[in-house]
Amino acid sequence: MSQNKHAQKSIDPASQTMLARAEQEGVETAWDRLHKQEPQCGFGMLGLCCRNCNMGPCRIDPFGDGPERGVCGANADTIVARNLLRAIAAGAAAHSDHGRDIVEALLHAAEGKAPDYEIKDKEKLAALAQELKVPREGRSEKEIALDVARKALDEFGTSKGHLELLERAPSQRKERWGELGITPRGIDREIVEIMHRTHIGVDTDYVNLILQGLRAAISDGWGGSMWATELSDVLFGTPEPHRGESNLGVLKEDEVNIIVHGHEPTLSEMIVLAAKDPQLIELARAKGAQGINLCGMCCTGNELLMRHDVPIAGNFLQQELAIITGAVEAMIVDVQCIMPALTDVAGCYHTKIISTSPKAKFSGAQHVAFDEEKALEAALEIVRIAVENFTYRNKDKVFIPSDKMEFVAGFSTEAIISALGGSLDPLLDAIKEGNIKGIAAIVGCNNPKIKHDYGHVALAEELIARDILVVETGCAAIASAKAGLLLPEAAAKAGPGLKAVCEALQIPPVLHMGSCVDISRILVVAAAVAKALDVDISALPLAGAAPEWMSEKAVSIGTYVIGSGIFTVLGTVPPVLGSSNVAALLTKGADDVIGATFAVEEDPLKAAALMEEHINAKRSGLGLP
Description:
By secondary structure, the protein is of the alpha/beta class. It contains 25 helices and 16 strands. The chain folds into four domains: 3-59, no CATH class; 76-236, Substrate Binding Domain Of Dnak, Chain:A, Domain 2, CATH 1.20.1270.30; 248-397, Rossmann fold (3-Layer(aba) Sandwich), CATH 3.40.50.2030; 419-621, Rossmann fold (3-Layer(aba) Sandwich).
């Protein structure tokens, strides 16, 4: 395979280099496994297969020559809607279970059971306490934190009727949710109800099913994910803008390289402390290394780069490529987006894959249980294992691409308001005057069906050239970091209005807002702007996009984004085309119901045009030029 063939897989030069290296080394990657799957099952691609009972599996023929119903009588509309709902349930469960873990970490810290954790952002804790009507006067910080944590934990199975943080949404949005009967009653309840409704012999009405999908997704975005973000800030500090480095070139030939990969900051924050331990640094030197180099990968990397100077080695499709450098002593994993193939790839090198969560064990990995009550102790043990593994590195197999790029990250909601001088007014003025036409959120994963990073970077570049400010989370943000779009200097690629705003504020035209759960930050900003203008979120010049999405979490995210009133463009086709009714509801009918729709456009340049057209229409609706 030529280097040009590898250029068809990724726009990132470091990834192209490592794909060529993988071929030379005879190591299989995600792109190879995708090729072996082709052609992929056409029924599955359309969402037309059902395995929800053992009378099947059943499939509906999209051409009308075969069965029109499953054994139980379910038709294409029911099967496609049920499959979509189960994806929403899994995605919402993943994000919300992450949120529950953060809530419990704060609870245990406040109870004194997790002594290695402390409250880093006392002001945010006080603000949350006020919002939740938790008494503060004459009470200790831990007492306040305990009540906040208990209130947050109650959100997962609340009996009071609706989630607390829904109050952040503008009144118009809350009224619409109420009229449709999709106001979330409890995070876990909505996920459980999806699983009940999609069991054989329950809900078969595709409209009714999708309304429940919206309710569960909203409980993710305005519930589980939002709590994860808020309380991560309380425990680990609210991010502020700072510089860092990205891409595989951040790995070092002369140091112990440790990569943290997954999504749980409770683990990675302790690894940061352990990697700075003087005794472990001395041990690394005794083993022949110059020190310990800690790097992030995927959304754990996003969590770290938002709060620390920890470099990020790459996004989802680079996890195997990092190991293929031969320079990684350990990849420490927790939950979500971790390829089961990692242990196979690591077996070709000296790299140890160390799993830490009881929810996620991997065949062939070494498991070190991470316990919040002995968090730092566990982290020190994990780092020690990595340091001692340096002895087994084969220097002849080490090949680190030189590619790396600086970035500026740390744009939390609070940091954006601070950059604007303490108020959203300058942003509103820039939008009203037309210097910024609107705001676009680019989120989501990598998918080997789409050229790696191309969907994210090409879309971001096209949008900023059209004077549209871009905010990003997750693997999309890492793609832009590697491409240099997270630097103030990238304003040179923006249109004249956006460029002037960025230069005046000394900010990049693409703002990194965190990991995938941190999309809730975008919702908070959108709600604040809508309240300032006294309109629904659906009236704002906003648009969302997931150009390279692949996970069930992305299905939940996309659903709660349109459920919040934001038009969203998908870059890969969801498995709903087997039902023309479901597809029409999501791309057309939902606008009348919820005030926003999906669109599917694989070409990022055409996607940018769709988003600009939508933003201009919303500007017109607000009477803006």
